Amino acid sequence: MFGKTCVRSLIDTDFYKLTMQQAYLHQIPNAESVWEFHCRTDEDLTPYVGQLREQLDALSELYVTEDQIDYLRHRAPYLRDDYLAFLRLFRFNLSQVQVSAANNSLSIRVQGPQLHVSPFEIPVMATVSELRNRVRYPTLNEEQIRKSTFNKIRQLERLGDSVDLSDFRFFDFGTRRRFSYDAHYIVVDMLKHALPQQFGGTSNPHLARELQLPFMGTMAHEWLQTHQGLNYRLVDSQKAALENWVREYRGDLGIALTDVISVDAFCRDLDRYFAKLYDGFRHDSGDPIVWGEKIVRRLEELRVDPSRKTLVFSDGLDFERAVHIYKHFKGRVQTSFGIGTWLMADFDINTPLNIVMKMISLGGQPVAKISDSPGKTMCHDRAFLTYLMEVFAVDAGVREQVLLGAG
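^ that's the sequence the OP posted. Answer follows.
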């Protein structure tokens, strides 16, 4: 279940890393950022430092082929020629990465132009996960992966006995925490053949190309966080990020993230202009039903028909949770589901890692994400966190939880 290298190509990543990189190239090519890795699981990852450095060496040798460029140009025509020319030249620069071990904790810090360091996020996380799984679960084999995945497929089929799933669509969002590349390939291939009506594709363009599937991805939290460090009033940063995304993609990739400063703050910034302009909104923290109801209510207040919009759910999902959400909103708003760790890293006999890699500063200024799950906050500057929450009128109870859980 494990190959020589954990990451197989430069486009073996989440597609949004490419869409983000194009936007950085065109709008802020020189902005400097700092990213840090964090393991939320209570587990010592320091034994893998040496292997991680070896894998990063291999990462630096990756480049896009002309066939891959042609594939991206054909499947994603909003990727412009100047960006594809840049991508031909792009290489991971290991001088921008610091890997160390201290106090039973793995430290990974990436620093440099956002244009060049943002792409490290997904391959670094996928590599850490696979290296750890090689040691922890060396005997987990293809038969066990297929058996576990088959049981998940059967679960969705059984759920379909009590609700019409003809409009239920889900996608693979599992690259960053996958058990291994080989396991990822097997599961995506099984889903493609077993659930052709429900399985819409993958966020990984490399696997999409290998398995002849659609790929998808839009903006990331980092896009809205980046605008906190640019030359905008902080209170206007979220609206500026939404405006600049539209300026970049001109009607393509129209799903907006809502939980960088909490859904309540997002709804205050969501006016009729943005509500009509964007195709939908993505949930990534907090109670999905509460979140969805708030978005639907805000659209109705703005005289925008929710049934013409899409809510994308992507936070800690399995089929049971996804179908529950689907049933709740069916007929009122369109839904789709990004499912990651449960499908691509959890095979019943193993425990997946809960890891993240987040931007913590841009241009020397702190940035932060105040999500609808306060424990997800990752920022070292409590003064900035406090100010950010004051500016966006975050609820006092949430502020206390965020400050307690920040790190």
